[in-house]
Amino acid sequence: MSRSPCLIEQEDRYDDGIFRIGRKHGFLPQRSPLVRLPDPFGPVQSLLDDMPVWLDVETGRKGVLGTPGLIAERVAQLPNLVDDVSRVVTASQTRLLNDREASRLVQALFRGYGFLTSAYLLESAHHGTQAGGAYGKARNVLPAALAQPLVMAADALGMPPWLDYHHSYSLGNFVHRDSTLHGEDLWHWKNLEMACRFSGTSDETGFIMLHVQINQHTAALLGAFQDVLRDAQLGGESENPAGPWQRLLRALEHINRSRREMWRASRPERYNDFRVFIMGITGNEALFGPGVVYQGVKKFGEKPMQFRGQTGAQDDIVPACDILLGIDDTYPTNDLTDYLRDLRQYRPPVVQKWFEDVRKDRDAVELDKFVASEPSVALIAAACVEQITLFRIGHWQFVQKYILSHTRHATATGGTPITSWLPNQIDACFARMDQLLKYADPSKLSASERRWHANMSQRTHERRRILAEQRALLENPAFDPREIYARNAGHEDVAIAG
């Protein structure tokens, strides 16, 4: 049967010079990020080099962020290199330089100025942290020497002018310690270092580089996306209609296996060492007041601005699966769902475009109708949703151990409410599981498939019970985080990690 290709198979549509989204690179950059800024940005790079709280943990040698107020002194000495940033941006837009090299430099400038911005504004909140984990006040006026170059680089990338996940803290911030390794060894968090850092500890590096490790599996994931949509477009005429779904499930299992290494990569009790530096403005009025004034940026008119902070919720894996697997359609109508959709605007435009086209492809091939007509496929699709559920439940357990046990700051780095945000998404996963398990009519399944169906149904029931008990405990403002976590008995993510 002849067919026109699905949109997301046409990978040249999703190439912005930094990312090329598809079955070769997945969601990772198509080239490793620049490690250091070249001349004439030496003063910026010098401050980035000196900046971490710890330059050497073992010897106790501290950097700029280790001394209260020192970052303000160093920023006051920083020249305003906005004209130099403008020349780089112009070169990237007019192709006076190799466009991919210029794009990488714009990205590295955005990363560097984003790090300096967060460090400058949130250093006082870090040093003002009180017993019990309540953060101090942040600065809320950004000097022109940081504000103007940051906004210029952000505009060139189509991004909000704040430290982000894709270009700055995670996917645009990795360095291979040994680039001669291959496969999973190359992308393992132990083989990754950060180009820019806040705390300078191994816990910070492990925490954020683990996100990069997870994304090594997205090439296989997006290849499966394309295959699933192509097969549905052909009406399941392939020899094995379940094949693409099995590949999708395997990719998600690999992703969850990598995600669980967080328990080894970064100690929960050390998360607060760097968490405050990745806070955003939105939802954090307790830190920033009405917002941040970007000095010298005409389009903002010296008015306080608000932007969401860097967060793992800006990663692309789960929201992409939400769209393909139909979880998106089961979200309740509430403010938490609105926050979820708002976070999608904090991704590179090319990623946002890809998301839109996944939905268009899904609707065009009538994917849900196809899944509903194939009980065995519906069963595997339910298993895929179960993997997304496990991803979110694992993240929810991270919140309990890494955050709730060490601070009562009620807002996540992305500006969402910490105790209700993830449960809202988990509810949507449960709802979609119910639909898919209904499509997977046990009377039309093999004996082994019926056992699989029964086991998934039972696990979903148990997870619902656990979440309900945790919510009941959270209704008490003086909740004990240990009691919340204890309700995970039998389903502890760290136990699965081994």
List keywords for this structure.
single chain, 498 residues, mainly alpha, Methane Monooxygenase Hydroxylase, Chain G, domain 1, 2 domains, two-stranded parallel sheet, 22 helices
List the helices and strands and how they pair.
Elements: H1 42-50, E1 54-56, E2 61-62, H2 70-76, H3 82-94, H4 99-127, E3 141-142, H5 144-157, H6 165-169, E4 174-176, H7 183-187, E5 192-194, H8 202-215, H9 218-233, H10 243-259, H11 262-265, H12 272-275, H13 285-288, E6 293-294, H14 317-325, H15 335-343, H16 349-364, H17 367-372, H18 375-404, H19 421-439, H20 447-474, H21 481-486, H22 493-497
Parallel strand pairs: 3-6
Antiparallel strand pairs: 1-2, 4-5
Helix pairs in contact: 1-4, 3-4, 3-5, 4-5, 8-10, 9-10, 10-18, 14-16, 14-18, 18-19, 18-20, 19-20
What would CATH call the class of the largest domain?
A: Mainly Alpha
How many discrete domains? 2
- In CATH, the topology of the largest domain is named Methane Monooxygenase Hydroxylase, Chain G, domain 1
Which residue ranges are poorly predicted, with pLDDT under 50 across at least 5 consecutive positions? none
Specify the helix fraction band: 40-55%
Query: What's the helix count?
Result: 22
Q: How are the strands ordered across the major sheet?
A: 1-2
Element-by-element helix/strand order: HEEHHHEHHEHEHHHHHHEHHHHHHHHH
What is the name of the CATH architecture of the largest domain? Up-down Bundle
> What fraction strand?
under 5%
